[in-house]
Amino acid sequence: MLRLPELLRLRLVCLVLRSTMALAASCACKNGCQNSDMTRKISRCEQLTFERLLGGRRKGGGRKKSPDSGVPHLRRPPISGRQAVHVTVRVREDVPFLRQLHFLRELHRCFEEARERPGRKTTGWFRLLHFSIQGNHIHLLVQGSDRGTLTRALIGLLGRIGKAVNRVFGRSGEVFADRYHDRVLSTPREIYNVLRYLFDNARKHGMSLIKGRPDPFSSGLWFDGWKDYVHDGWIRMESPVARAASWLLNQGWRRYGLLELRPAWDRSLNTG
Question: Domain 84-269 class?
Answer without folding.
Answer: alpha beta
